Amino acid sequence: MKTLAKWIMVSLLVAMLAGCGAAEPTAVPQSEAPPAQATVEEAAPEPEEELTEAEQWAKANALGPWTPEEEDWAAIEEAAKKEGSVVVYSNSSKIEKLLEPWSELYPDIKLAGGDTDDIAVKMSAEQEAGNVVGDIWFNSDGHLLYGEFMPNQWLWWYLPPDVVEPEVTPDRPYAIARRSVDVIGYNQEIYPDGCPVNNWWAFTEPELKGKFYMEDPISDSSTTAKITLIIQHADEMAAAYQAYFGREWTEDEAYGDDTPNSGYLFLKKLARNEPGIQPGGDEVDAAFATLGMDPSVEPGYGWTGLSSYESTMEGELAMAPCYGLEPTVGILKASYLAIANKAPHPNAAKLFIKFALSEEGFKPWNQMGAYSGVEGMPLAEGMPARDEIKLWPSDDLFGYQNLSPVRDFWAISLLAP
């Protein structure tokens, strides 16, 4: 009986479980698929700017904008020895004084150089013909350097990385070998107490008619570029006019539509005062500063190089600078160093520029009237420091851009009654 009861209980339990049904399986939560990522395409690299043939050459020789921050001078010297020589076009006869010290430093590299006329004409002709002989431009004529040679990629700049030149900038990148000073000179033998004039406008006065000596702005582009500084510094010329004449420059009888600023007015009045035009610097000096001139006759004044004072110190001339002139004592001209495009001896050219910018290389020019472009170079005996005298530095690009209009204006003013 008990056994029967157990079976009944088991049967009932099974029936109850069956009635409940099978349990639904628990679904595993599915993580949502991440949103589709947008395909990010890498930006295509900027195409390299195509280099000109000249730029490719400069880059290959590490010149111009491709000048490195450091140089392996031992490797450059070895390469220069294989080149065998370097050809320097210079407008100074003093280049010959570098031959001996150069050969002592680099006996296996011949320095070929001399005083060469018309360097700009010569080097431009070589570039246009594709027959480059000269390696180095060692010359002034900065207005042509920046106005023609740089845009045409005929000359590349190079400044050794360890040389500091404060005036070299990204937009004025050529190495400056030296700055030469041009001043107004007087005859100190006739005027032993000093320069009798203190203002540039005095040279436009009737009593100095024909007594201001200078080179020809019409035939000599360097002189033309020099006088463009007068129109560039018109504000200072106006102040000097006021100080000298006691009135505004626009009240001058020569003022007119053709004189847009006081610089043009000065050139007009100077041209009308019949300046003594000379063929060269030596003739300018001889005109007013020859020893033994008649003291009863006004000797005049000359726009000349301060370097002429060396001859005075040696007893050969009576020229002395008018240091008290307003608005400026004179101007600073630059002589540049550059390497010709496709120069046949680029490594030797680098060595020469490094040498020319050294104290030994500057020695032939380190005299009265010259400053080195390199920071810290010692001054010649008697040479005033740059900040002791007021000088207008040449602006070569301005000079080039204004060359033709100023030359034409000067020529017209000479013909005016």
Secondary-structure map:
Layout: H1 2-20, H2 53-60, H3 73-83, E1 85-90, H4 99-105, E2 110-115, H5 119-129, E3 136-139, H6 142-149, E4 155-156, E5 175-187, E6 212-215, H7 221-232, H8 234-245, H9 262-272, E7 276-278, H10 281-289, E8 301-305, H11 309-313, E9 319-321, E10 330-340, H12 346-356, H13 359-362, E11 370-372, E12 391-393, H14 396-401, H15 403-415
Parallel strand pairs: 1-2, 1-3, 6-7, 6-8, 10-12
Antiparallel strand pairs: 3-10, 4-10, 5-8, 5-9, 5-10, 5-11
Fold and architecture overview:
The protein has 417 residues and is of the alpha/beta class. The protein has 2 domains: 53-177 and 333-383, 3-Layer(aba) Sandwich (D-Maltodextrin-Binding Protein, domain 2); 180-332 and 401-415, D-Maltodextrin-Binding Protein, domain 2 (3-Layer(aba) Sandwich), CATH 3.40.190.10. Helices cover 35% and strands 15% of the residues. The chain has 15 helices and 12 strands. Strands 1, 2, 3, 4, 5, 6, 7, 8, 9, 10, 11 and 12 form a 12-stranded mixed sheet that branches. The radius of gyration is 38 Å and the shape is globular. The relative contact order is 0.17.
